[in-house]
Amino acid sequence: MTARRSAPTVLPCSIDPQSWDIDEGSYRAGRDAQRECFQCPRLAACRAEVAKMIAAGDPPQSMIWAGVAYRHDGTAVATDRELRVYYNRVEGQRAIERGSAA
Hints:
With 102 residues, this protein is mainly alpha-helical.
């Protein structure tokens, strides 16, 4: 008797990692990434990984992990409004770097 192997789960964050990077993506991509996290079969495992990282003093930075957005300093973005403000600030910074800011 042979054991059947199930196909490996393809995680949304591995398909388009830029959408999980809050310094690179857009607000809409970030919100979509959060929704994907909440539907992911690895959500509990990711939450456990984040808890270990935070306990070790090395929180996620500039990314969405386990459905939570983390700023560049590793602090969690608590509200949707804060997330929108963060993305707007980052987009403004990118415009300055491109030389296209007014």
